[in-house]
Design brief:
The chain is built from 22 helices and 31 strands. With 737 residues, the chain is α+β, with helices and mostly antiparallel strands. A 6-stranded mixed beta sheet has the order 2-1-3-11-4-12, sandwiched between helices. It starts with 7 loop residues before the first strand and ends in an 18-residue tail after the last strand.
C-alpha cells in the first residue's frame, strides 16, 4: 500500500502516448499530482503483456488498461473507472474493409486480417469472439492474420492493399459515427475509401484500474479528480487527448463501490448572451456561482451588477474592442477571488444580427484556466526538450528521411542535411532498427572525424519512425583503450616473466658452449695453420658462422632481459637519485652513435631528486636516446638534431624531454608506440619503449609521445620529486626512579 510520501505509479498501455501525445501523457500526470498533492509517475508499458504482468505482481497503483484487463482485475481492484466516449462508457468493434472491394461475413473466407495487438479488445479480441460466435473460426477463415500495433497502422494496411479487413473500436453501432472515427485516423480524403460491414455487441470500455496498493482516501481523491477533470471548467480538457476520451465514470455494477468522492473546489465556467446594452439576456454557470458571487437571476442585469466591478472590468474592455472591430476577441487575465489568485480566459463572439436591434448581441464565455496555467512551465519544458537537449537528437522515417534534427545535431553533423540517408549515423540507426537487436546488446557506435558517437535508437509507431540520441563518448573510448592496453601489458608482463625465466638458463648454456666451441676451433685452427693444412681455411668459415650464432644468441639474451625488466616489479628499496648525472652518463655511453647521426643539443636546468633505482633510470634514458638516434638517417647527419632538455615543472616534478628530427610516426603507429613488440625502428625488438613505459609508470610518473610524419618525435618523461626526508625523532631514555 502506498504511503503519502511515496509516488503513485501510473502505468499506461503502449498504444497510448506515442510521439505527439507524449507531452500530454506527462502533463496528465502532473495535473493529477497538483490536484492530489502527491507525485504521480506516469510510465508507458512496452507491451500489453508487461502491463498485465505488473498488475498481477502488484507493482502498480494505477493502470490504464484494456477493457479485457479492466474486467479481469475489477474483482481485486479498489475501483475501475471506465472511459467515456461520445457520452457512452460502452463500445463496439466494427469490421472495416475497402469500399471498392466490399465484404460480408459470408465472403471473408481466404481474406487477410490486420489486427491491432493480441491483447487489444476492439482491435482483436472482440471481433474474434464475434466471428467465432457465428461459427467462423479465424484460424480457418483467414489466409493471413497479422498484428500491426496501432489502429492507424491496421487501417492503413487495408487502404494500401496489404490486408483486406481490420477491426476498430466504435462508440456506437452507427455507420455515420464510424465515418467520423475513421476520418480521425485517415483524414477526410481517404475515409470514403473505407466501409463498415458489421458491428459486434457492446462491451464495457477500457479505463483506469485503481489497485489495492492505494489507500481508500487516495482512491476517493483520484475518483473525484478523474471524474471531474473534464467537467469542472478547469481548462484541462486537452489532457484527455492521450486517451481519446471525454472523461471517466465509475459504473454501478452492484459491487461495493469506492468511497464517496471528497468535495473539491470547482473551477468557474460562465456562458452568457449580452444584448446591445451589454445586459445579460441569459447567463449560466454549472455551479450557480462565478468569481465568488451568486450569479442566479442575472437576466436583465449588467455584467458589473452580476459579477462585480473588478471581475467585469476586463470583460467590458474586451466587449468594447469586439464591437469596434467586428471580430472575435480573446483575453486572459488574473483576478483575486476569495483570497486566491486565479487565471481566467474570456472569449467574446459577435452573434447574428437580430432584426430591429441597432446594436449587435455578443456571446461570452469565461473559463477558469488556473489548472493549465500551473502546467504551462512544465509543458513548455517538455515541448522544448528536443530543441534544448544538449546532445544531438534526430527523428527519422523508417527509410532514413530526416524529419527533425535539433540545433546540437546540426552543430555536430553539419553535413547531415546534404547527405541525408547516406550519412553514417543515419545508416547505423537504420541497420540497428532493421536487424532487431536483442535486449542488452551494446548500443551502436559510429566513428566520425576522430569522435566516437554512441547511439540510442527508439522506434516510434505513430507515425512509424526512429528517434535517435547521439552521445559523444570519445573520452570514454580513449579511457577504455588505455585500460585495455594496461590489461594487455599486464598479461604480456606475466607471459614475459614466465618466458624469460624458462629461456634464461638454456641461453646461458648456449652462450657458454658457443664460446667454448669457438675457443677450441680457434686453437685447432692455429695448430693446423702451423702445419700448413688446407683444412684451416674451412675452419675459418665455421668460426665465422659460430661468431654470427653467438651474436644472435647474445641479442636473444638482451631481449629476454628486456622481457624480464618489463615484467619485474619495481625495486622495493629505492634511493634518492639525482637525474642530471644519470643523463650525462647515458649520453656518454651513446656518444659515438650520436656523432655519426646528429648534432647534440643540451638544455639542462635545475632538477629535483627522485626516488628510483639508478640502474633502471640509466636503462630508461639509454632506451629513449638510442631510439631517437636510430630514427635519424646517417646521410642527413649535418641537419639532424638530438635535443635533450631537463627542467622542473610548475608542479615541482622532474621533466626530461628527448626530441629527434627523424622521420616521425603515423597516427596509427603513434597510438601503439608503448606496446611490446611494436618496433618504431627497423631491426629493433620493439621492447625498448614498452620497457621504458613500465619503468616510468612503476615510479609513479608518465611517459608521453608526440610525433608528426617527416618532422620527428618528442618523448616526455615526467617523474615525481623525491619525498621530503622527515627529521628523526630524538630518543629519550627515562631513568628508573
Amino acid at each position: 500500500m502506498t504511503t503519502p510520501t511515496t509516488p503513485i505509479r501510473f502505468m499506461i498501455y503502449p498504444a497510448l502516448g506515442d510521439v505527439r501525445e507524449h507531452v500530454r501523457v506527462e502533463l496528465f500526470g502532473r495535473a493529477l499530482s497538483e490536484r492530489l498533492g502527491r507525485t504521480v509517475m506516469v510510465e508507458i508499458a512496452p507491451t500489453y503483456e508487461v502491463l498485465e504482468a505488473e498488475l498481477v505482481a502488484g507493482h502498480v497503483d494505477m493502470a490504464w488498461a484494456t477493457a479485457e484487463q479492466c474486467d479481469a482485475f475489477a474483482p481485486r481492484a479498489r475501483a475501475v473507472l471506465r472511459a467515456v466516449r461520445s457520452g457512452s462508457f460502452h463500445y463496439h468493434s466494427a469490421l472495416v474493409c475497402r469500399a471498392d472491394e466490399p465484404l460480408t461475413l459470408e465472403t471473408l473466407q481466404g481474406k487477410r486480417a490486420a489486427w491491432v495487438a493480441p491483447r487489444s479488445t476492439g482491435g482483436h479480441l472482440l471481433p474474434v469472439r464475434y466471428l467465432e460466435s457465428r461459427g467462423l473460426r479465424t484460424n480457418e477463415l483467414f489466409s493471413q492474420q497479422r498484428f500491426w500495433g496501432t489502429y492507424r497502422k491496421a487501417i492503413h494496411a487495408v487502404l494500401s492493399g496489404e490486408a483486406d479487413v481490420t477491426a476498430i473500436y466504435s462508440n456506437h453501432a452507427d455507420e455515420h459515427a464510424m465515418r467520423a472515427t475513421l476520418a480521425t485516423y485517415v483524414g477526410a480524403e481517404d475515409e470514403p475509401r473505407l466501409m463498415t460491414f458489421a458491428f459486434t455487441a457492446p462491451t464495457l470500455a477500457d479505463g483506469i484500474v485503481l489497485t489495492r496498493r492505494l489507500s481508500e482516501p487516495d482512491v476517493a481523491a483520484l475518483v473525484s479528480v478523474l471524474t471531474r477533470m473534464n467537467t469542472d471548467g478547469s481548462g484541462l480538457e486537452m489532457l484527455m487527448g492521450p486517451f481519446r476520451v471525454e472523461g471517466f465514470v465509475l459504473p454501478s455494477d452492484g459491487r461495493e463501490q469506492a468511497p464517496a468522492p471528497r468535495k473539491s473546489r470547482s473551477a468557474e465556467y460562465v456562458v452568457a448572451e449580452l444584448d446591445g446594452e451589454d445586459r445579460c439576456r441569459r447567463l449560466w454557470s454549472p455551479t450557480g456561482r462565478a468569481f465568488g458571487r451568486d450569479v442566479s437571476g442575472a437576466e436583465g442585469r449588467t455584467l458589473t451588477e452580476v459579477l462585480g466591478a473588478e471581475a467585469a472590468e476586463p470583460l467590458l474592455s474586451l466587449m468594447c474592442a469586439v464591437r469596434h472591430g467586428g471580430a472575435d476577441g480573446r483575453q486572459e487575465y488574473r483576478l483575486e477571488v476569495e483570497g486566491e489568485t486565479r487565471w481566467y480566459a474570456a472569449e467574446i463572439t459577435p452573434c447574428a444580427p437580430v432584426p430591429g436591434e441597432t446594436r449587435q448581441r455578443l456571446g461570452l464565455m469565461v473559463r477558469d484556466v488556473s489548472g493549465m496555467r500551473a502546467l504551462e512551465d512544465p509543458m513548455y519544458r517538455l515541448a522544448s526538450f528536443p530543441l534544448l537537449h544538449p546532445e544531438p537528437l534526430l527523428e527519422l522515417s523508417m527509410e532514413g528521411e530526416l524529419r527533425y534534427a535539433n540545433p546540437a545535431a546540426h552543430r555536430a553533423f553539419p553535413e547531415m542535411v546534404a547527405q541525408g540517408g547516406r550519412h553514417p549515423l543515419v545508416q547505423a540507426a537504420l541497420q540497428w532498427s532493421w536487424r532487431g537487436a536483442p535486449a542488452g546488446e551494446p548500443a551502436p557506435l559510429v566513428q566520425l572525424a576522430g569522435h566516437y558517437w554512441e547511439l540510442t535508437v527508439a522506434q516510434l509507431s505513430d507515425p512509424a519512425g526512429l528517434r535517435v540520441f547521439a552521445r559523444d563518448v570519445t573520452l570514454r573510448k580513449q579511457m577504455e583503450t588505455r585500460l585495455l592496453q594496461a590489461d594487455r601489458l599486464s598479461a604480456l608482463g606475466s607471459l614475459a616473466a614466465a618466458v624469460g625465466h624458462e629461456m634464461n638458463n638454456p641461453l646461458a648454456f648456449m652462450l657458454a658452449n658457443l664460446s667454448y666451441a669457438r675457443e677450441e676451433l680457434e686453437r685447432m685452427g692455429e695448430s693446423l695453420r702451423g702445419q700448413g693444412a688446407a683444412v684451416s681455411e674451412e675452419l675459418g668459415e665455421v668460426l665465422e658462422a659460430l661468431s654470427e650464432t653467438a651474436e644472435g644468441a647474445l641479442r636473444l639474451k638482451h631481449i629476454v632481459q628486456d622481457l624480464r625488466t618489463l615484467s619485474r616489479k619495481p625495486p622495493e628499496h629505492q634511493a634518492r637519485v639525482e637525474l642530471q648525472p644519470v643523463l650525462e652518463n647515458a649520453l656518454k655511453l651513446i656518444r659515438g652513435q650520436v656523432s655519426q647521426r646528429a648534432r647534440l643539443e643540451r638544455d639542462f636546468f635545475e632538477l629535483p631528486a627522485v626516488d628510483a633505482d639508478e640502474a633502471r633510470l640509466t636503462q630508461l634514458f639509454l632506451n629513449l636516446l638510442l631510439n631517437a638516434v636510430q630514427s635519424m638517417n646517417p646521410a642527413d647527419a649535418a641537419r639532424n638534431v638530438l635535443r635533450v632538455a631537463a627542467y622542473t615543472s610548475e608542479d615541482g616534478e622532474a621533466v626530461v624531454e628527448v626530441q629527434d628530427t627523424g622521420k616521425g610516426l603515423a597516427p596509427d603507429a603513434l597510438s601503439r608506440i608503448f606496446e611490446p613488440f611494436v618496433a618504431t625502428v627497423p631491426g629493433s625488438s620493439g621492447l625498448g619503449l614498452s620497457v621504458s613505459h613500465a619503468i616510468v609508470t612503476s615510479l609513479g610518473g608518465t611517459l608521453r609521445a608526440e610525433s608528426r610524419e617527416g618532422r620527428g618525435t618528442l618523448i616526455t618523461v615526467t617523474l615525481p620529486a623525491a619525498a621530503e626526508v622527515s627529521q628523526p625523532r630524538q630518543q629519550v631514555r627515562l631513568a628508573a626512579g
